[in-house]
Amino acid sequence: MSRLSEPAVVVQALPVEGSASPGQIVIVVGMRLGCLNHALLTRDAVAAAGLPLAGWIANTIDPDMDGFEDNVEALESRIEAPLLGVLPHGVPAPKAAAHLDVALLP
To answer: What distance in Å separates the CA atoms of residue 106 and residue 102, rounded to the nearest whole number?
Structure first.
């Protein structure tokens, strides 16, 4: 179980190699209880700020999460930007890129 102090959703505007323009937003969703609400509120905040949402990443925080696939599918149907990938639980940061499809970035 994760601590309450850990964010369920992380948003950073970073230049991404292969991206058409730097500063596009990629939402990283920590897949656990409450992630749907957090992700959709974050999507809405990004849109309200007039920022470009390039995609989102599902980060497996809780490897035993009930309904993991259902939650990913629910987010795919509600977030207009593409799912760039699913990060397995415990994947080290240097290996995370192997699980992402940056060709989906605009």
So the answer is: 9
